[in-house]
Amino acid sequence: MGTRVGGVGGVLEGARPAAAMVVVELIFSALQIFIKLALDDGMDVRVLVAYRLMFGAAFLCPVAFLIERKKRPPLTVKVVTGLFLCGLFGITINQNLLVLAIKLTNSTTIVTALSNLTPQSTFIVAILSRMETLKLKKASGRAKLTGTLVGLGGAMLLTFYKGPEIRFLHNLARTRLSHAHGNHQLLRPPPAEGSRILGSFLAIASCFSFAIWLTIQAKVGQVYPCHYSIAAMVCLFGAVQSTLLALCMHRDSEHWRLGLNIRLYSSAYAGLVASGSAFPLMSWCLRKKGPLYVAMFGPLIVVFVAVMSSIVLDETLHIGIVLGAVLIVAGLYMVLWGKAREEDEHEADAPKLVSQDEELGKESVTPARNVET
Length: 373
What we know:
Layout: H1 2-40, H2 45-68, H3 77-105, H4 108-115, H5 118-128, H6 139-160, E1 165-166, H7 167-181, H8 193-223, H9 227-249, H10 253-256, H11 262-275, H12 278-289, H13 291-296, H14 300-312, E2 317-318, H15 319-372
Antiparallel strand pairs: 1-2
Helix pairs in contact: 1-11, 1-12, 1-14, 2-3, 2-9, 2-11, 3-8, 3-9, 4-8, 4-14, 4-15, 5-6, 5-8, 6-8, 6-15, 7-14
Subcellular location: Membrane
Membrane topology: Multi-pass membrane protein
Protein name: WAT1-related protein
């Protein structure tokens, strides 16, 4: 009986990281919906990003202070510069490009699908910055290159091809909306083809901006290993940068006024829930299972957003979006498989290196013993 209870407890314990990652993806999916609703209400892209980061910094700074106040190393000019660049590429540029992409494409599904190009973008940036070499003689290198090309091909397909409409979820949304609003249906004019293509390329550019941030933060994390403090300061730098950018475009109070409306709810949800709740959950999963496990759940957000945006936002889903998203996700898993295989190859090569070192050690030690005798 005790064994059975222990087995059930073990299963539940093992399922906690998966459940946590599903919750994280649901939180981020709802975030896309909130952003779209705020944009539809007329909120400016830059102001929305600035408010989101203000809420996020206001939440994360006290949390970081309380959790890491006793183990935080002193800040150096190098660390502060790295955190400033992290805020610039990972927050300010990335978030402004993403939100502007949602506005131009008028589709959260397109932007969410394209956001899954981050591993491929990171691989390209690592190659260009010579942090990683292209090892085509190994299966891991071939898998990462193939996954990158497949993902980019899916992005191009999603960008330039729409195809027939998938009507099931759209009809469900129209039925729900017609019941809620009588005979009036919430129909939004589709974006111009040029705007949709430009928005798609901005979403792809945001992935490269995010990849640059990952590269910089990896170096910062080596000399400043305080994850909550890094997140808080990056968010704080991003908030200052985004606010200055928004003030350059809009200084009148009308754009900045928040009432008890969707603008306040979207900004608060983005800063407090998406940044405040999802980040600790994701950090816990990273410690438990590692980055590859966390990255595997990324494609879930495409499914969640596609369903939620079709039902809540009355978005039209086309076959081109689905096919492109499938290729992007396939490319993502190829890159993840390549990374996992690369780790296995490093582990397999490690004993060989150790044995070679031992042989060299024996050769160097043996003459010394002969001299002593």
